[in-house]
Design brief:
Structural class: mainly beta
Number of helices: 5
Shape: globular
Distance between the termini: 21 Å
Order of helices and strands: EEEEEEEHEEHEEEHHEEEEEHEEEEEE
Strand content: 35-45%
């Protein structure tokens, strides 16, 4: 209806701050030479959601694409070593998720594909660059930007594709999580989250000329997910990002804080700085934070607010929370009657008119 032909799109479109284009992508898994290939189609839309650029890249094997990044010259997607087994799902024996139908091959490698954007390829000769890095799974990109012939890619990665315990079904995992919240006990957190794989901040410095990558990992030992930043910094060099994070600095735990991440120390120390902006407490569980620039902003990258939803595991109610992204001020917490978001893992977005 908006010019992309009703095709399936990945979960995360992004706005290019240089020209206001909405950039999104979608995938189609197709048979190829007795195996599978994934056609990744990128769309760049104007402010009326009309296509300006459309391009498709065929990549060997199956790709589970939830998020992507881009720079001025490249689209960036991550291909983890996954194996799709669709027959159990088609026949009704299994659900549509891992570990039922998607197997993670820990002995494989993850590939970062840097695919030229059409307008950049017209300016100068560019080829796709595919760089292999140690085995991991990447749900979310923090950001990416270029510096000369290097592409710096910041991600949240897990060691494997394991959103829950590998021996549990989807219902058993998240059903147990909900029941644990309702029980009001702490024991389920310690037994439940220590067995699973958790997100960590990682940086890849990709040298396009040599087709190689330097991995800086981990940038922090804290469990994190749902990274966001000031959207004006997307595809540009950034200093700050904001993540849902565990309260404990090293243990695998659910997201109960919003943490401000400072990347300015990565080049000198190999680690990020961390500042907890909001702590939801022992029985609070945060959703994704969204950065909102302050009206009449000073121009500082962190001059704005974080907004988002927080589930109160004690009252079983949902709060809307506003936090100063610069830190040092008490959060504004507004209870939302009759709305419960029992799974604190929801994405959010912001426009000048509405928060979603």
């Amino acid at each position: 209806g908006v010019g992309v032909g009703g095709k399936v799109l990945a979960a995360h479109p992004h706005v290019d701050p240089r020209d206001g284009r909405l950039v999104c992508c979608g995938t189609l898994v197709v048979p190829k030479n007795g195996s599978l290939a994934t056609e990744v189609t990128f769309y760049e839309l104007d402010k009326n959601l009309k296509p300006i650029e459309t391009s498709t890249e065929s990549l060997d094997s199956f790709i589970l694409l939830h998020d992507f990044a881009f720079t001025d010259e490249y689209y960036i997607v991550a291909q983890s070593p996954l194996e799709l087994k669709s027959f159990p799902f088609v026949l009704g024996f299994k659900g549509p998720g891992e570990p039922e139908c998607i197997n993670f091959k820990s002995t494989g490698l993850t590939t970062l594909h840097l695919i030229p954007r059409p307008q950049a390829a017209r300016r100068r000769s560019l080829q796709r660059t595919s760089v292999q890095v140690p085995s991991c799974f990447i749900f979310h990109f923090v950001n990416a930007h270029q510096k000369d012939d290097k592409v710096i890619i910041d991600v949240v990665q897990t060691k494997s594709f394991s959103a829950w315990h590998p021996d549990r079904s989807l219902e058993a995992s998240f059903g147990g999580f909900h029941r644990g919240l309702a029980s009001g006990t702490r024991e389920f957190l310690d037994s439940y989250f220590d067995v699973g794989d958790t997100g960590r901040l990682v940086r890849y410095d990709v040298d396009v000329a040599s087709n190689s990558a330097n991995v800086i990992s981990p940038l922090s030992d804290r469990t994190v997910e749902f990274p966001r930043l000031n959207d004006n910094q997307w595809s540009r060099s950034h200093r700050y990002a904001y993540v849902g994070a565990s309260r404990h600095p090293t243990r695998a735990q659910p997201l109960q804080c919003w943490t401000k991440v400072d990347y300015s120390t990565v080049t000198t120390e190999g680690r990020v700085g961390e500042q907890v902006l909001y702590d939801a407490g022992e029985k609070g569980f945060v959703g994704e934070p969204t950065f909102v620039p302050r009206a009449n902003t000073s121009g500082r990258e962190d001059d704005g607010y974080l907004i988002g939803m927080v589930f109160n595991g004690e009252t079983l109610e949902t709060d809307f929370v506003v936090v100063d992204a610069r830190g040092g001020r008490e959060a504004i917490v507004v209870n939302i009657p009759d709305i419960r978001l029992p799974l604190p893992a929801l994405h959010g977005t912001y426009t000048r008119r509405v928060f979603l």
